[in-house]
Write a structure and sequence with these properties.
about 400 residues, 17 strands, D-Amino Acid Oxidase, Chain A, domain 2, about 35% helix, seven-stranded mixed sheet, FAD/NAD(P)-binding domain, five-stranded parallel sheet, alpha/beta
Amino acid sequence: MNTRIAVIGAGPGGLTCAAVLRRHGVEVTVHDLDASAGARDQGGTLDMHADTGQIALREAGLIDGFFALARSEGQSKRMLSRHGEVLGEHLPQEGEDAAPEIDRGQLRALLAGSLEPGTVRWGHRLTGVTPGGDGTHLLTFADGTRTVADLVVGADGAWSRVRPLVSGASPVYTGVTFVEACYDNVDLAHPVVAELVGDGHMFATGDGKGLIAQRNSGQHVRAYIAMRTGEDWHRAAGIDPGDTAAVREALLKAFAGWDERLLTLITGNDGPYVSRPLYELPTPHTWPHTPGVTLLGDAAHLMSPFGGLGANLAMLDGSDLALAVARHDTVDEAITAYEEVMLPRAIEATGQVSGVLDRVFGPGDRGAGDAPDFEREGREYKRRAAEHLQRSQAR
């Protein structure tokens, strides 16, 4: 196809789509509002699952680059009660690769760096999309530039500007907010936090709240102080979110009675707290076939971070869409083939994650029976990855 393809959003899904398209010789342009790949903090760490994110990276020809950066030790997980009891723990074996961790910034740099210079138009904030009536769309950007696309890919996240072309759905608040706290030079400066989180993740939940911590590269830890609360909880309490001492006092009050070591995740942070309400799209989220436009990742199936599916599915979406474009004669055929696979997969995943959120932040204490079977989870990633490989070889 001699097709003008515009991907809106240079996150993991959009960049994966572009990388797989270019590997198959298909021209594409990616537009992103950031000034560069490293213009802002990209957030925490991601576990790349063997049956989703790793499949996409293989299709992009980047799996070796990923494993050179990934942290296999980051697959360690520890679940505690709010009283500090260890309810479940997984320590990865040597060579375990079901879901290694990589910092979001490192992943973005890997994907963006694989594309020819000029493929990503940094500093391009989309301000308008006008259907042309023939399947094409006129894209307008904040700098005044315009371009026409035969295929517009909405990879622009939760508050997508492309989504209204196919769907009237908007994100809704889940009822849970994460308050992020960060710790630098953690092994020396914050030994209690370092011991709690280990090499990977630690989470303790109970009574509708949670303390979650993840180790990033470079001795950096991000903690998420989670609560079932109002969307603007700090304003409702009359707290200036920039007043670190006042936020800390309110959080300690909310977590009264929790284990003192766990409370270190509230009291010892470097820098301010950042409130991050969790949103999701209504489920099931589908839309009628729309000529010349489709969605992937959070734009298509925004969900809570529990289960680590968001970025993994976004990348698999991007890979599947790119392969559909490369394998079909027309844009319409490619969109149809892609959405027939992506939409049922997204409906199943969002339903699972929604149920997890309800269980994790339900009333009462958690017990050992609530701990996930981390080893079984890893085996399932590998099993499904092997099945995908067999299907691919049979085509």
